[in-house]
Amino acid sequence: MEPATPYEDLDEASQVEVLRRVARGAADAYGLAVHRLEPVLHGYNTTFRVDTVRGGPLALRVNTNSKSTAEHVAAQQAWVHAIARDTDVRVPDAVAAPDGRTVVVAPCPEMGRDLLCVVNTWLDGPDVEQCDPEQAHALGRAMASLHAHARTVVLPEGAGLPAFDEPLFGDRNLLEGSLLLDDAGREVVDAAFARTRRAFAALAAEAEVVPLHADLHGANLKWHEGRLAVFDFDDAGVGAPVLDLAIATFYVRDSDPAVERGLWEGYAEVAPLPIGEEHVEPLLAARQLLLANSLLTTTTAPWRGQAVEYLGTTVDRLQRWLTTGRFVLGPAV
């Protein structure tokens, strides 16, 4: 008998079908009577819409590439439930299984391991994708509210979040010394790591740390009837609040300047801007390093082919930043 194709070598449709079976097992563990199970997104993780026999849709996420442990996911779900309960920030509330768990484990033989799965309430509206000034302003306000709430949240026993105290957030470093880079590229990456690590060290010495969403960009936001919603807390961790602002800024840099300005002004309407604004440019560069490194580890079919090209983009962006002191996404002007 021919050996089965490894999961990471399957095409996108085949990977989704593997994960559909995983999602079915997770739905059973949550006690859901499934009427329809449809894929919504096959990316870093894979999300399905679950329509139940008794009613409205739910979102079921299978953690495929996530580095989150069961302890981390329990913390994410506890925090998002507290946000839904205590604030006016719209989030997808955690759904519990009949035994009270908010994270379940489902086997995936094709990947040779068990996968963590969660279910959350459904959010209406399209993904924002690219913020306009109004949406960016709303995001700034929501972020400040999340930070204020994070200072008060008490996580349950057995739940905890990782520390964001270095550029790759604890991920295995596949960039430094990568054989996919030439000598010049490795020099740029090494210099970028050195500078971004200094920024993280400075923040550790001067800034408070709180739970952060750490991935606030348009693909994790919805806009419905003039209101913003925030979802996908899978990257949550504990860090300096300015890091959240820097990550969100990364995704709007080089768009209409009013968008980036709206993000920061929205935050300042709710709370004083956090300590560490002078470190924003190296934090943007750190985000670039993290994204490039993540592509080198992904099992998701559409992303695996992008890794080499994105490394070239990464080196170009980092070189411009090292030369000019300002991080930009587009070509130099």
Q: What do you see in this structure?
A:
The model has no long low-confidence stretch (mean pLDDT 94). This protein has two domains: 117 residues, Phosphorylase Kinase, domain 1, CATH 3.30.200.20; 197 residues, Aminoglycoside phosphotransferase (APH), C-terminal lobe (Aminoglycoside 3'-phosphotransferase, Chain: A, domain 2, Alpha-Beta Complex), CATH 3.90.1200. It is built from nine helices and ten strands. Strands 1-2-3-5-4 form a five-stranded antiparallel β-sheet, with helices on both faces. A three-stranded antiparallel β-sheet has the order 6-8-9, with helices on one face. Helix content is 42%, strand content 17%. Helix 5 packs antiparallel against helix 6, helix 5 packs across helix 7 and helix 7 packs antiparallel against helix 9.
Task: Give a concise summary.
The chain is an alpha+beta fold and 333 residues long. Helices cover 42% and strands 17% of the residues.
The number of helical elements comes to 9
CATH superfamily of the largest domain: Aminoglycoside phosphotransferase (APH), C-terminal lobe
Give the strand tally.
10
The total domain count is 2
**CATH class assignment of the largest domain:** Alpha Beta
Second-tier CATH architecture of the largest domain: Alpha-Beta Complex
Q: In one word, what is the shape?
A: globular
Strand order of the largest sheet: 1-2-3-5-4
Reading the helices and strands in chain order gives: HEEEHEEEHHEEEEHHHHH
Model regions low in confidence, pLDDT < 50 over at least 5 residues: none
CATH fold-level assignment of the largest domain: Aminoglycoside 3'-phosphotransferase, Chain: A, domain 2
Average residue pLDDT: 94
Helix content: 40-55%
Strand content: 15-25%
Largest pleated sheet: 5 strands, antiparallel
For the termini, the CA-CA separation is 58 Å
Radius of gyration: 20 Å
Structural class of the secondary structure composition?
alpha+beta
